[in-house]
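Priority: medium. Attachment 1 of 2:
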């Protein structure tokens, strides 16, 4: 093929797609437009190994700049895309009109902002980019006081890294448990206990009424009348997909850029992948937007195949992992509030070596293991299958024997 593909985005989905295009033998022109100053990189290390100081930030980079030059990829970092001309097949970026035959939008997501924090003038930050991670890491030291708004994955991983580095950490979570909407009370309670055991001041049901700067300190006022004083406040209240240029160009947008099972948008020659894509999932039978590392990789591969004229399905089950202190877990599937009616736990929950299964009737919609690394194949095998819930709950019954359909 000798035509032109433009990729908009500097994350893992964009980088994976470009690498895959060349590895699949695409010999046309490729232009990669990355908004950040860095080439595409992975985000999980930013809240894990990089934040812990185990690796430097450069370790997260997918391919060094020389790779792009060696493979005839026009990599343009620090380049903001202003608009798309879908009828004219052009991307307007940095004042230049760049032509394409096919276009991939992998614009990712950005942190949801907390106006009270942003307008306070205090030391406030977010954790999304490589620069964010480097900035937060350099603050960690014995006695440093970190406040975290939000008990989601980013907030808890940052809390774990900070505590491991000797910092004092307070997490403010508005719900009754951290990760309650993601994991449900059964497993969310395990996460709460884990952090409290490691010295995190986890305050649930917390309502913030004010944030202000007091010299070099940050003061956070809470609805219960208490005040939290910290050296730095990290806000982790979720992300929102970067859909603005897609919507302005006339693409269908609904909780992300809507794409079919092949990651094709409402325009035949435009695809979307990664955090920004709300994709029809052929296995789960619904559309979903997934903000995890593995989905970015899988989407990048599928997008590359289909940009080259293929009809590959984006059918990989959602997968994510976390490592916090001595606790590690892997999760497969998609369990949403109201999307399951029971959670089955197997193993030693108190000792944090167990598996958890989210069931809708007798169908497993999601599964995870905690510190049981040999169980991941069984987790992948059971998600989407019909099982006998009673046998699944029986530790003495092999997982291979619980499947009924």
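Attachment 2 of 2:
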């Amino acid at each position: 093929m000798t035509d032109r593909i433009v990729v908009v985005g500097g994350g893992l989905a964009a980088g994976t797609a470009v690498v895959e295009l060349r590895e699949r033998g695409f010999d046309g022109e490729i232009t990669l437009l990355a908004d950040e100053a860095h080439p595409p990189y992975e985000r999980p290390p930013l809240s894990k190994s990089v934040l812990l100081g185990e690796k430097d930030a450069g370790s997260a980079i997918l391919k060094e700049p020389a790779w792009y030059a060696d493979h005839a990829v026009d990599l343009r970092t620090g380049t903001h895309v202003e608009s798309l001309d879908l009828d004219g097949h052009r991307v307007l970026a940095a004042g230049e009109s760049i032509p394409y035959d096919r276009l991939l939008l992998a614009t990712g997501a950005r942190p949801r902002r907390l106006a009270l924090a942003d307008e306070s003038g205090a030391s406030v930050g977010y954790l999304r980019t490589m620069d964010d991670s480097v900035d937060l890491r350099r603050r960690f030291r014995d006695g440093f006081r970190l406040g975290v708004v939000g008990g989601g994955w980013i907030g808890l991983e940052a809390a774990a890294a900070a505590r491991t580095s000797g910092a004092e950490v307070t997490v403010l979570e508005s719900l009754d448990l951290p990760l309650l909407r993601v994991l449900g009370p059964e497993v969310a309670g395990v996460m709460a206990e884990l952090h409290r055991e490691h010295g995190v001041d986890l305050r649930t049901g917390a309502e913030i009424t004010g944030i202000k700067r007091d010299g070099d300190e940050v003061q956070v006022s809470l609805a219960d009348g208490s005040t939290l004083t910290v050296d730095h406040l990290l806000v982790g209240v979720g992300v929102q997909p970067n859909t603005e240029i897609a919507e302005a160009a006339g693409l269908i947008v609904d909780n992300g850029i809507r794409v079919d099972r092949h990651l094709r948008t409402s325009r035949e020659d435009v695809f979307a992948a990664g955090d920004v894509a709300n994709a029809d999932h052929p296995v789960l039978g619904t559309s979903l937007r997934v903000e995890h590392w593995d989905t970015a990789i899988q989407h990048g591969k599928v997008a590359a195949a289909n940009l080259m004229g293929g009809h590959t399905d984006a059918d990989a089950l959602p997968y994510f992992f976390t490592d916090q202190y001595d606790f590690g877990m892997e999760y497969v599937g998609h369990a949403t509030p109201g999307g399951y009616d029971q959670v089955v736990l197997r193993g030693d929950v108190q000792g944090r070596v167990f598996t958890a299964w989210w069931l809708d009737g007798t169908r497993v919609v999601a599964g995870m293991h905690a510190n049981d690394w040999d169980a991941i194949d069984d987790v992948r095998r059971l998600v989407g299958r019909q099982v006998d819930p009673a046998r699944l709950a029986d530790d003495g019954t092999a997982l291979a024997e619980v499947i009924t359909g």
